[in-house]
Amino acid sequence: MTFSFRRLPIAAAILAAGLSAASVQAAENIKFAVVGPTTGPVTQYGDMVREGVLTAVEVINAGGGINGSQIELVTIDDGCEPKQGPVAANRVVNDGIGFVIGHVCSGATIAAADVYDGEGVVMVTPSATAPALTDGKNYEFIFRTTGRDDQQGPAAARFIIDKIKPAKVAVLHDKQSYGQGIAAAVRQDLLAGGVEVSMFEGINAGDTDYSAVITKIRGSGADFVYYGGYHPELGLLMRQAAEQGLKARFMGPEGAGNPDINAIAGDAVEGMLLTLPSDFASNPRNADIVKAFEAKQRNAAGAFQMTAYTATQVIADAIKGANSTDPAKVAEYLHANSFDTPIGTVSWNKQGDLNEFDFQVFVWHKDGSQSAFE
């Protein structure tokens, strides 16, 4: 498979000065940027990704680094806001950084991707699941280490059809790229499976009173609610539904899998269903990696820690494999090879999506724990 790549401007400048990329990497640290929310209402998702990236960087550096060079990590905030995505991306470019783990939220990632691909910066997102990130874009430098909403949505819908067997389903979303996209995928597959979707409606993220929506759910006759979006709104929906006596079970995507949802929803969170990446932390083959997390009081079992660790590792492995810090050569190596990682053997199709990724359904409990649905 042949790809056409553009050279990162800084790399071209180095070569023009008569230095090879290999000689530079032997003498200097290699900068990786981790980009995601360090401010705003969903900073916890950024924390999960940073925990995975930091742990991977520490393990790689302790093992001798990349071809003798250490990884130097630069953290950049985008607030999980689409309008801040290009701002953060341009900072990466201006700082001469050729490798990015992130962004975290789909909207910000989509907004930043054109900058990275146009400037020849390798970006691997461990958490942006919206298909719009890659569909029809012909990107060369953009990759994921997580699945897409059109993989996660059908998994959720099939579970609802086969295991829940509801009378009617209300499907809600937060009107944003991620939430609306996955909600639409769930609705489509429910309808195809013969399940009545009695309501499909967007809510305003950041609102504090969803009484009117809950009244509509009750009026629609739904006994099951699927919500596409993040934990703050889903937590409020569940709490206010319980307060108003609505007897319906709730389900959400991995973006709602945040321990802070317990404080928002209270006891109403018990039994919430989530589609999440497999529990990679429980895999015995990852025992040493889990110990590395635990040594720094980090949790390896969250939604994005292992996918973020994997994103960092595959960039490092591709630099080693290409024997170059030229992002164009690294991107080419990523496209052409598969990698053994904590989430399994990974490889990508032409547009940078994983060839395989499994989502599983978990039950969330009021003590903050989760268990596989049985």
Q: How are the SSEs ordered, and which strands pair?
A:
Blueprint (H helix, E strand, L loop, with lengths): L8 H8 L4 H7 L2 E7 L6 H20 L8 E7 L7 H10 L4 E4 L3 H14 L2 E4 L16 E3 L4 H16 L3 E6 L3 H16 L3 E7 L8 H10 L3 E5 L2 H13 L5 E4 L8 H5 L6 E6 L9 H9 L9 H18 L4 H10 L2 E3 L2 E3 L12 E6 L5 E3 L2
Parallel strand pairs: 1-2, 1-3, 3-4, 4-5, 6-7, 6-8, 8-9, 9-10
Antiparallel strand pairs: 10-13, 11-12, 13-14
Helix pairs in contact: 3-12, 4-5, 6-7, 12-13
Q: What is the rounded distance between the termini?
A: 42 Å
Number of helices: 13
- Spans of at least 5 consecutive residues whose pLDDT stays below 50 are 1-27
Using only CA atoms, what is the Rg?
21 Å
Number of domains: 2
Mean pLDDT: 91
Instruction: Please count the beta strands (DSSP E, at least 2 residues each).
Output: 14
Shape: globular
Structural class estimated from helices and strands: alpha/beta
CATH hierarchy: architecture of the largest domain: 3-Layer(aba) Sandwich
Question: How would you sum up the major sheet?
Answer: 7 strands, mixed
CATH topological fold name of the largest domain = Rossmann fold
Widest beta sheet: strand line-up: 7-6-8-9-10-13-14
Concise description?
The chain is of the alpha/beta class and 374 residues long. The protein has 13 helices and 14 strands.
How would you explain this protein's 3D organization?
The protein has 374 residues and is an alpha/beta fold. It has 2 domains: 9-146 and 282-358, Rossmann fold (3-Layer(aba) Sandwich), CATH 3.40.50.2300; 150-270, Rossmann fold (3-Layer(aba) Sandwich). It is 42% helix and 18% strand. It contains 13 helices and 14 strands. The protein has helices spanning 9-16, 21-27, 43-62, 85-94, 106-119, 149-164, 177-192, 211-220, 231-243, 261-265, 287-295, 305-322, 327-336, and strands at 30-36, 71-77, 99-102, 122-125, 142-144, 168-173, 196-202, 224-228, 249-252, 272-277, 339-341, 344-346, 359-364, 370-372. It has a 7-stranded mixed β-sheet, sandwiched between helices. It has a 5-stranded parallel β-sheet with strand order 2-1-3-4-5, with helices on both faces. Helix 6 packs across helix 7 (177-192) and helix 12 packs across helix 13 (327-336). The longest helix has 20 residues, at 43-62. It is globular and about 65 Å long. 52% of the residues are buried. It holds the Pfam family Peripla_BP_6. InterPro entries: Leu-bd, Leu_Ile_Val-bd, Peripla_BP_I.
